């Protein structure tokens, strides 16, 4: 990580919040109306944008939140399906102890269900169960591998993960079913957790992100969009408002919508996902600073997709938190989480990630569902015939263009600092600008809030 610890990077980010601009002053040039003086456009109404809007309001500014979709929440999207609420995007409050979203959930009185990831039901492709002893042997090996890679990340952060991972797997010397279980467990850590395969990820990318103070991951009964609703309270959002250009003109920023409408304000916080920035569908004039553009190019976007499986009856092992059929390479890992305890229904959610998810998105929803059902059906014949299915395609979603960001060998956390640095009256924010908690809901929310504070400081 460029010789700097994450904490040092954050201090650096706070100390250098802009590219060559100090306080900008709230005063407006000739032609500005007094109302524009304290108006800031926020592009995107995900958790970053909504978090930013709340801080702006508290500071006496009027946020104009422009959202391209017909709904708020972005990559947090709870829908009514199968007679219950399901999360197509983010679902878990990770590390609930100390995670500020836990306080939001508690204040709203949300019912939560804790996840114990070690309660696994693993089977081989012939349907026979993986014994507890084998599963434990593989889990211990996984923990040793993660710890060794984390140590190596301190010395060679930009090294591609694939080589060191292969060496560490070999060093464990596991064979037979234990080796198969290890592949599955590492698949959960990599394509399913980071959304990327080891050949794309760096050691630092694998090790990135801080924990809060532990505590279980929590699912919310009724879905994660309830968090979005709580954070959006009091903020007005213009939906169906796709931004195509952000132009800084003297003491104003002019934001152009696809409809041709132009909205002027004294600042702009752009919280569109990194994938959208990479696609250059928003024109910045003047262009974003070179370091920001470099960071947009260097930081990568991973893919995680979900396949919901609806059954007439829950016939999976009782108490299992996750099911898996082992015997595939880690890149093709599929896991299914029963959602009975959260939805009261015989419903499961399957996960696929990385290049495999991209390939299946291209092949279409039927192929994606078939891949998950077929794989799971080998170990669990009772899962082979769902009565209903629903799959996501986050990479193909033009307002997301992927699931969340990660660091490959060409990027470091310093690029995240550059990404979130203010450039005059324009600042980017989102999960991709979070140094401690990228790829999470809380990281996005806090990044949006921090960006708004920095813009407020500059404008007052
Ligand atoms: C499948 C999946 C599972 C996940 N699971 C978890 C989890 O369990 N726990 C967790 O903490 N995190 C999880 N995440 C990550 C989490 O969802 C994100 O980190 C977070 O929601 C990102 O918030 P954001 O505000 O940065 O971006 P977004 O939520 O994407 O918000 C950006 C907004 O900008 C809008 N937009 C895009 N282009 C334009 C434009 N041109 N004009 C106007 N608006 C535009 C988008 O429509 C969107 O609403 C998951 C993500 C996915 C995809």
Description:
This protein has 460 residues and is of the alpha/beta class. It has a domain at 6-73 and 225-301 and 402-459: FAD/NAD(P)-binding domain. The chain contains 16 helices and 22 strands. The strands form seven sheets. It has a five-stranded parallel β-sheet. Strands 12-11-10-14 form a four-stranded mixed β-sheet, with no helix packed on it. A four-stranded antiparallel β-sheet has the order 18-19-16-20. Helix 3 (47-58) runs parallel beside helix 16 and helix 5 (132-155) crosses helix 6. The protein is globular, with a radius of gyration of 23 Å. 52% of the residues are buried. The model is unreliable at 1-23 and 25-34 (pLDDT under 50). The structure holds flavin-adenine dinucleotide (FAD). Residues 43-49, 66-69, 74-76, 89-92, 94, 242-243, 271-273, 276, 281-282, 304, 306, 394, 399-400, 403-404, 430-431, 439-441, 444 line the site of flavin-adenine dinucleotide.
What overall form do the CA principal axes indicate?
globular
N-to-C span: 34 Å
Query: In what range is the share of β-strand residues?
Result: 15-25%
CATH-defined superfamily of the domain at 6-73 and 225-301 and 402-459: FAD/NAD(P)-binding domain
The profile of the biggest β sheet is: 5 strands, parallel
CATH class of the domain at 6-73 and 225-301 and 402-459: Alpha Beta
The CATH topology assignment of the domain at 6-73 and 225-301 and 402-459 is FAD/NAD(P)-binding domain
Compute the average pLDDT: 93
Bound chemical compounds = flavin-adenine dinucleotide
Q: Total helix count?
A: 16
**Class based on secondary structure composition and strand pairing:** alpha/beta
Instruction: Indicate the percent of residues in helices.
Output: 25-40%
Instruction: Give the radius of gyration.
Output: 23 Å
Instruction: Give me the CATH architecture of the domain at 6-73 and 225-301 and 402-459, please.
Output: 3-Layer(bba) Sandwich
Poorly predicted regions: 1-23, 25-34
| Strand line-up in the sheet with most strands | 9-2-1-13-22
| Strand segment tally | 22
């Amino acid at each position: 990580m460029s010789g700097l610890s994450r904490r040092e990077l954050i201090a650096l980010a706070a100390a250098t919040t802009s590219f060559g601009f100090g306080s900008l002053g709230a005063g407006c040039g000739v032609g500005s109306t007094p109302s524009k003086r304290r108006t800031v456009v926020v592009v995107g109404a995900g958790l970053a944008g909504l978090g930013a809007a709340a801080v702006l309001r508290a500071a006496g500014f009027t946020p104009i939140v422009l959202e391209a979709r017909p709904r708020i929440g972005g990559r947090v999207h709870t829908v009514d399906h199968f007679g219950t609420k399901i999360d197509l995007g983010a679902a878990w409050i990770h590390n609930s102890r100390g995670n500020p979203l836990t306080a939001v959930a508690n204040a709203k009185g949300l019912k939560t269900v804790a996840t114990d990831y070690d309660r696994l039901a693993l089977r081989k492709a012939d349907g026979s169960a993986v014994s507890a002893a084998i599963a434990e042997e593989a889990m211990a090996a996984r923990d040793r591998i993660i710890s060794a890679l984390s140590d190596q990340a301190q010395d060679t952060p930009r090294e591609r993960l694939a080589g060191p991972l292969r060496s560490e797997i070999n060093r464990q010397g596991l064979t037979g079913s234990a080796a198969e279980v290890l592949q599955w467990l590492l698949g959960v850590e990599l394509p399913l957790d980071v959304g990327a395969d080891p050949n794309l990820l760096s050691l630092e990318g694998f090790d990135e992100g801080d924990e809060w103070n532990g505590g279980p991951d929590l699912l919310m009964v009724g879905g994660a969009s309830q968090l979005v609703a709580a954070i959006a309270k009091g903020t007005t959002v213009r939906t169906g408002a796709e931004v195509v250009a952000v132009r800084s003109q003297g003491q104003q920023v002019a934001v152009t919508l696809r409809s041709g409408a132009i909205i002027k304000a004294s600042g702009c916080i752009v919280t569109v996902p990194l994938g959208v920035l990479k696609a250059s569908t928003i024109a910045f004039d003047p262009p974003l600073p070179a370091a920001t553009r470099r960071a947009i190019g260097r930081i990568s976007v991973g893919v995680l997709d979900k396949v919901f499986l609806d059954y007439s009856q829950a016939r999976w092992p009782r108490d299992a938190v996750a099911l898996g059929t082992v015997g595939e390479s880690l890149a093709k890992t599929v896991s299914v989480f029963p959602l009975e305890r959260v939805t009261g229904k015989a419903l499961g959610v399957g996960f696929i990630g990385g290049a495999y998810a991209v390939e299946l998105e291209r092949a279409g929803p039927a192929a994606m569902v078939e891949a998950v059902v077929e794989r799971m059906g080998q170990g669990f014949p009772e899962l082979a015939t769902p009565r209903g299915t629903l799959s996501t395609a986050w990479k193909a979603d033009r307002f997301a263009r992927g699931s969340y960001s990660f660091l490959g060998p060409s990027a470091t956390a310093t690029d995240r600092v550059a990404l979130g640095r203010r450039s005059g009256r324009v600042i980017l924010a989102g999960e991709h600008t979070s140094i401690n908690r990228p790829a999470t809901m809380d990281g996005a929310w806090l990044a949006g809030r921090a960006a708004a504070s920095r813009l407020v400081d500059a404008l007052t």
